[in-house]
Amino acid sequence: MESYIVPIGMTVIVLALIALAASVVSMLFSSGMKRPKVPAYTLDQEWTRAPALYSATEIEPMALPRPFQPSDLEGGYASGKW
Q1: Domain residue spans in the chain?
Q2: Nearest alpha-carbon partner for 76 in 50, 64, 58
Q3: Which bin fits 70, alpha (ψ -120 to 50), beta or left (φ > 0)?
Q4: What pLDDT does 16 receive?
Q5: What pLDDT is recorded for position 8?
Q6: What is the spatial distance between Cα 79 and Cα 41, in angstroms, rounded to a whole number?
Q7: HEC string of the chain?
């Protein structure tokens, strides 16, 4: 078992250095990319998009660290006049 420590450790170190070098190279190549500017929205402008309403009703059961009601695990709904 002790004879595997050095080969496994060196392999992990080499793979980590390769991943580090790859991430540095990718950052160098992507630093000159121009991304489109997102226009800033202020409240005095008219909102022209449809509302984004999300409902989280299909949540998997989970174990909570305290007592709970069944409604604690279910998402609600959003409604209103837009």
Answers
A1: 1-31
A2: 58
A3: alpha
A4: 98
A5: 92
A6: 23
A7: CHHHHHHHHHHHHHHHHHHHHHHHHHHHHHCCCCCCCCCCCCCCCCCCCCCCCCCCCCCCCCCCCCCCCHHHHCCCCCCCCC
- Contact residues for 72 (Cβ-Cβ < 8 A; gap 6+): 64
User: Which tokens hold the place of 73?
Assistant: 């695990």
What is d(CA 2, CA 9) in angstroms, rounded to the nearest whole number? Answer: 11
pLDDT of 51 strictly over 80 = no
CB atoms under 10 Å from CB of 73, counted, come to 13
The span from the CA of 27 to the CA of 21, in Å, is 10
pLDDT at 21: 98
Task: Check if the beta carbon of residue 32 is closer than 8 Å to that of residue 56.
Answer: no
pTM over 0.70? The answer is no
